[in-house]
Amino acid sequence: MSGTEAEPVRWGILATGGIAASFTADLLDMEDAQVTAVGSRSPESAKRFAERFGIPRSYGSWAELAADDELDVIYVATPHAAHRAAAGLCLEAGRAVLCEKAFTLNAREADELVGLARSCDRFLMEAMWTYCDPVVRRMTALVHDGAIGEIRAVHADFGLPGPFEPGHRLRDPAQGGGALLDLGVYPVSFAQLLLGEPADVRARAELSPEGVDVNTGLLLGWDTGAVALLSCSLTADTPMTAAVTGSAGRIEFPRGFFHPDHFVLHRPGHDPEEFTAPEALRSYQHEAAEVMRCLRAGERESPLVPLSGSLAVMRTLDAARAEIGVRYPGEG
């Protein structure tokens, strides 16, 4: 982007659903961010969204939004089945992109998107807010410094009770439905933040009549001997907690591990130590701040959410889907 650090970063919002609304609300509370335009495939939806949040311009197509030269970055908040097309359109139009998770429908699409960003010389980042959270970053630093020794196991889960009706996007194969891509991406990303890409992926799932996973368990393994036991569900309200166990201690996250306000470090011979959030920013604001820092620094990807990590997570999700037999339209 051009200009000085004092100038606000101008955002475009692509899509008008619930997560787009939450992200926009957080952006509007940031002094160095400016929500300039919103785009949707429905002109009426874009106009209502713009009126709701006081956004100056609304567009009735993704292409019109992408063509707006007064935007520094576009936040893509469609269902993940549309991420490749929407983010790709924005990159080709010369926009930087923050793309919601799961990054794409599969690893092939993710690889195409990363390649496009690099060929267009544009910034691209997956909106994995967990990686930008200061509490998670503190935990990662402690683990890397050896606070709990060598990692032996990671446990994490994310489940919602439903029920989700047959027409809901989470049950629609055409929209990349299922627990794994919508919810399982969090436990998988959490484990791979600490251990990298696994050497072995095992999975088992219950499938819906439409052919998407609704209750899924994963066992990931690494050559170090470390394992991760992860689960996701559209049929059960799981604890939504996480734990990292090492040879010299463990770290436990409370419910909502993917945007935590604290964690507890347990080590033999020591009292439990609680680490809390050092600042008042809300979770979406942490990832937005990282995007804006990168744009001002002229960086093409974030060191906190590297594209190599997003690609690795998509490969793991692909391997898990191969294990449970979930295929989406057009994948063959």
Short summary of the structure?
With about 325 residues, this protein is of the alpha/beta class. Helices cover about 35% and strands about 25% of the residues.
Main beta sheet strand tally, sense and closure: 8 strands, mixed
**What structural class do you assign from the helix and strand content?**
alpha/beta
Number of strands: 14
- The best one-word shape is globular
Taking pLDDT < 50 over at least 5 consecutive residues as the criterion, the unreliable ranges are: none
SSE order in H/E notation? EHEHEHEHEHEHHEHEEEEEEEHH
- Spatial strand order of the main sheet: 8-9-10-7-11-12-13-14
Question: How many DSSP helices?
Answer: 10
State the assembly state of the protein chains: single chain
Rg computed from alpha carbons, rounded to a whole number of angstroms: 20 Å
How much of the sequence lies in strands comes to: 15-25%
How widely separated are the two ends?
40 Å
Overall helicity: 25-40%
- Mean pLDDT over the residues: 95
Please tell me about this protein's structure:
The protein is of the alpha/beta class. The protein contains ten helices and 14 strands. The protein has helices at 18-28, 43-53, 62-66, 83-92, 107-120, 129-132, 134-144, 179-195, 283-297, 307-324, and strands at 9-14, 33-39, 57-59, 73-76, 96-99, 124-126, 151-159, 200-207, 213-221, 227-233, 242-246, 249-253, 262-266, 273-276. It is globular and about 60 Å long. It starts with 8 loop residues before the first strand and ends in an 8-residue tail after the last helix. The model has no long low-confidence stretch (mean pLDDT 95).
